[in-house]
Amino acid sequence: MPLLIFSIAFLALPLVRLFLASGESEAGWAIYLDILRKPRYLNTLILTVLVSLATTFAALAVSTTAGMFLSRNRFKGRGILLSIMTLPLAFPGVVIGFLIILLGGRQGLINQITPGHVVFAYSVIGLFLGYLYFSIPRVLLTVMAAAEKLDPVLEEAARTLGASPFRVVIDVILPGLMPSLVAAGAIAFATAMGAFGTAFTLATNIDVIPMVIYTEFTLSANIAMAAALSIVLGIVTWALLLIARSLSGTTVAAGG
Amino acid sequence: MIKSKTKILQLTVTLTACAFLFVPIILSVLAGVTANYFQGISSGFTLKWVFRVWELYADSIFLSMRLAISCLIMTLIIGLPAAYGLARNPGWLSRLLEEFISLPLAVPGLALALALLQLYGSMKGFRASWTFILVGHVLYTMPFMVRSILAVLASIDLKTLEEGAATLGASPWQRFRDIVVPNAMPGILAGALTVVTLSIGEFNLTWMLHTPYLKTLPVGLADSYASMRLEVASAYTLVFFVLIVPLLMAMQWASARAQRISQ
Prior knowledge:
- Chain A is an all-alpha fold.
- Chain A has helices spanning 2-22, 31-37, 39-72, 78-86, 93-104, 109-113, 124-149, 152-160, 165-194, 197-202, 209-218, 223-248.
- At the A-B interface, α1, α3, α4, α5 and α7 of A face α1, α2, α3, α4 and α5 of B.
């Protein structure tokens, strides 16, 4: 089968080569320990995980609220709102980075309409907003697909039994959505961890894993470390998306 | 009363999210057609930045189109027979292969690009040619094509149809052409639109694989964001939107259609 030949030549062999390359420095295989031992890499790892976690929870909160609203209510303009919220699906990370610059850069909207000097595009906040921009449509689609399958009768029943709207959300809606929320969260987290395009535009001064891989490879020519970080990153995102898929059956490209 | 309060809260969150996603798009479109964005819209509208983009980056737009079409052809040639083979022989081996070719969905493009560079970077002729980028794109889009076709094929009774045709004297090639391909068409269409959309927007792999003489549209975009004035960068983004948004809509329509058929 041509597919087998293609994927062995351009997927399996290169990945094996990448793995071997990670052990070729003086540090040998201990390079994987260096990621945890050297402050530069450890701090990068912690920052990336924190920003990704923040993105995940923010995207879940926003997209679940909007997704439940859009799937439970039929009104004029609903289609337009839905189109707007899924439009960014095809935007590469670089474009999203640029859109954040238009919001929070030096010539950005926020800086123009607010008094004083408000520039956040190149800070961690800008990066977080970029990742959030990327994740909202993806989480929204997953949540809406699950919301369509929820039985509104259960909510009706809970309400008849005297449950407050808050209790209905906590006791009926959230448990019903839970597998999809975990799946969507895993997708958001994995995409944020591996997002290169957005980081490339915004994080010129911030060390997140994809940027460190890039600079190790191009500027420091530290190929072994770039390879080791890539392997770790790849395993983490792959494992997360595997969990996501086993829970919801959806596939969303990591991209970024 | 309480219910309407929660509704208002939900609506506010939804509208805020929409504004967050949509306002920057408007800003970018406006900046692309404004004579001087720093002075504001009052400086007048112009298409000169769009023409400027065409002068500077027409090559990158053509390269992206060439890549997208070549990528589509490659994924069809490799992916269609593969999806057929996987649908005909379901089992753990097929599952494993499907899982394996789906790796590029889960592993960041940066890591894949590094892997390709490690193995093939020293083959100068290949490294410097546009086919090197093509390999990356095919790698990344292949799972979408295979899965899209596979989902449709899995929902029909391929065996019975083929046996029927075989009894009537159809050769394997005839069966593939007259039964498998027409039945798989909704999946092929959805897969094809996905492949083209993703290929035109691909940045992560391409940035690592490209050479200074081979810039694709998103690579050119990154270049313009870093070195051009805001109006040019915006006009270039506008050109990208004009290309990608209709493709995205067609892709969503075709995917929804294929999903309905396969259910």
